[in-house]
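USER:
I wish I could look at a protein chain and see how it folds. I am handing you a single protein, as its sequence and its fold in token form. As I understand it, each token names a local backbone shape. I hope you can help me see how the letters and the tokens relate. The protein I mean follows directly.
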Amino acid sequence: MKTYLAAVLAMIAGAASAQNLNKFVISDEAAKKTLIKNEISADAAAKITQACVDFAIKNNMAVSVFILSPTGQIVHAHRMDGQVPINTETALLKAQSVLYTRDSTHARANQVANNVSLQLRWDKLPVFPVSGGLPIVVDGQMIGAIGVGGGNRDEDCAYTALTTVIGPQPPLAGGPSAPPLATQTK
């Protein structure tokens, strides 16, 4: 039984480490210019954005998407037709919030829900605690952030895009905003 358990754990560990950080970050040449290596590449950001747009089209909604570098620079942005300015602005705020907290905006929304004291304190911080913002994680490193706004399933859009393009991501926060995508039926 111990041997079987060890084999299963080894398979899980192998699958979890199957991501290749170099596949999703900027080139060594670009890193020499920026002095930062673990920054999402423009190519990876464009693929994630397209996967989110594909999800939105499939689910009959329009979204705005921002992908930011760990230093807050816009790597890729896209606004589908039918988005009003607040949709685009909230997508950017969600991505920026992830960079500030290093966590999903849904997790932060859960923290402030029904906590007036925390709501008042967070009102002064650059955090937008509404689901739809997620860290982009590869090999345990945050290489960027995604913010999606304007749809009715922003977090699902972001998570589906990340797992499609990047692979396994940290689990979604459960709670008031929406059930995690993994528990929803297709």
